[in-house]
Design brief:
single chain; 111 residues; mainly beta; three-stranded antiparallel β-sheet; 5 strands; 10% helix; globular
């Protein structure tokens, strides 16, 4: 569904039945952080970019609301991490993936 900031996110949901203004929610967040979520957090959320770049079905995203280390002046944001169900480990860069599910392409130039 499209977020208020114009990006498509698979975890953003608004109940928009006829004549009904539903409440927006992020279905990626777990129970303790779901109550603190606001649509303002969608502005800097990396999940739409990650899902657009890496569509691996084996990768599971996890998110929580917090601040990045040593940046006390920033507002709270969505911090995202990923795990791979196939390799069973943490994914270092969710934009690229674990490297085992989809090996990088190698090109051979024939002369």
């Amino acid at each position: 569904m499209r977020t208020p900031y114009g990006r498509h996110c698979p975890y953003y949901y608004v109940d928009t039945r006829r004549w009904h203004d539903g409440q927006a929610e992020c279905r990626l967040l777990a129970a303790p952080d779901a109550a603190r979520w606001t649509a303002e957090l969608c502005r800097d959320c990396p999940v739409p970019e990650i899902s657009r770049v890496n569509a691996c079905p084996q990768m599971t995203l996890h998110a929580h609301i917090g601040r990045r280390p040593w940046r006390f002046w920033e507002k709270p944001r969505l911090l995202v991490s990923a795990t791979c169900n196939r390799s069973g480990g943490k994914v270092e860069d969710p934009y690229v993936g674990c490297g085992q599910c989809h090996p990088p392409m190698e090109f051979e130039v024939e002369s």
